[in-house]
Amino acid sequence: MTDMKQPAVRPARPFFSSGPCAKRPGWTPQALNGALLGRSHRSKPGKAKLKDAIERTRKLLGVPADYRIGIVPASDTGAVEMAFWSMLGARPVDLFAWESFSEDWVTDAVKQLKLKDARVFKAAYGELPDLTQYDPSHDAVFVWNGTTSGVRVPNGDWIPDSREGITICDATSAAFAMDLPWDKLDVTTFSWQKALGGEAAHGVLILSPRAVARLESYTPPWPMPKIFRMTKGGKIVEGIFEGETINTPSMLVVEDYLDALTWAEGLGGLKALRARADANLGVLAKWTKVCGWADFLAKDEATRSNTSVCLKITDPWFAGLGDDAKADVAKKIASILDKEGVALDIAGYRAAPPGLRIWCGATVDTADLEALTPWLDWAWSQVKAA
Ligand SMILES: Cc1ncc(COP(=O)(O)O)c(C=O)c1O
Predict the structure, then answer these.
(1) Is the CB of 288 under 6 A from ligand 1?
(2) For the residues 168-190, what does the mean pLDDT come to?
(3) Which protein residue has the closest C-alpha to ligand 1 atom 3?
(4) Are the beta carbons of 179 and 185 closer than 8 angstroms?
(5) 192 CB under 6 A from ligand 1?
(6) How many other C-beta atoms can be found within 10 angstroms of the C-beta atom of residue 378?
(7) Cα separation of 111 and 236, whole Å?
(8) pLDDT tens-digit readout, 83-105
């Protein structure tokens, strides 16, 4: 192993970060040339751009015509917080957590909003909690894809159509790579910085008619900052969902999103995006079968993410190391590859078991993952020998 030669081929684009993720192939700053800069976002062309972003999102993701789509502040986190602060507390809530972001939402509901009737279902990294525990008379909160463990929910079959509660789904690392069953999702959120390789700062909040009914029928007992307010006089503010944003958006970021949508539409839409992510996952799946030292953190193949692929190290020598040494090995692999310029930002999430996390969303080229796997073996051999 120590004599392993450096691979000859380098990934053309070493961008495997799990957020912000790789820009689309061929992206240059020229893509932003048409941005409406130095103009009001409330001008006619400004509103038209925001509305265009909303309607093209609807088409690409197959969001039903009677669902509202809003562009909101503070990225995915902002969109989730808006939903939490505006809708939770009306009914008991079931929270499902299996990695860092889903745990953050538990903290918000239990420690910040101090919801009394909260049930928490947790699982360790690599696993899913028992989703069938969901009581359909309750609200539900979950992530579609656990970005920091690479474990996703396989489907929405566990959510009854006849539920009384609303479901709040953080889909930030799932949207544009996985099928989202809209009839099961009442609130869906994501940010542009993930699977389309857009920029952060703005979130997308998608509301089913049932979520709107909640907004219009329930007033939470706590104060509501302007940035979260979606109703006026007990009625939904429709403008938010037609491009009249609550506060000022970055039209540069909006332009970048429109460019990403154009790219995605040109590929053939969601099906094509998903196929690219699946092919990327396939490269790593094939490699884990033969590499002899790494495997998916996700235990069940049906839950393996096709975006944030998290890998654990399975080598017996590694298993015998202490926790700090394990973390050190994983960090070293990532840092050697970073130094070589072949893979940037692939260290596992800081709270996850030591390992690697490699983004496989559609903006990553399959050829680059194929070029990466020999480098993973090379870096591993270097670290183990040292
Ligand atoms: C599942 C999940 N939720 C929330 C976030 C936070 O997203 P943002 O920083 O866009 O608010 C992330 C970011 O990685 C995520 O993966």
Answers:
(1) no
(2) 98
(3) 101
(4) no
(5) no
(6) 20
(7) 28
(8) 999 999 999 999 999 999 999 99
Three-state secondary structure string covering 4-50: CCCCCCCCCCCECCCCCCCCCCCCCHHHHCCCCCCCCCCCHHHHHHH
Neighbours of 118 (CB within 10 A): 19
Strand runs labelled E in 264-342: 294-296, 308-313
Q: What is the DSSP letter of 198?
A: -
| CA-closest residue to ligand 1 atom 13 | 19
Establish whether residue 19 lines the binding site of ligand 1, counting it when its CB lies within 6 angstroms of any ligand atom: yes
Q: How far apart are CA 304 and CA 219, in angstroms?
A: 39
**Tens of pLDDT, residues 270-317:** 999 999 999 999 999 999 999 999 999 999 999 999 999 999 999 999
Taking 80 as the threshold, does the pLDDT of residue 386 lie above it? Answer: yes
Q: In this predicted model, what pLDDT tens digit does every residue of 110-162 receive, in sequence order?
A: 999 999 999 999 999 999 999 999 999 999 999 999 999 999 999 999 999 99
Task: Tell me the angle at which helices 44-61 and 251-267 cross, rounded to the nearest 10 degrees.
Answer: 40
pTM, to two decimals: 0.98
Instruction: Please report where in the chains the tokens 């909003």 appear, as a residue.
Output: 113
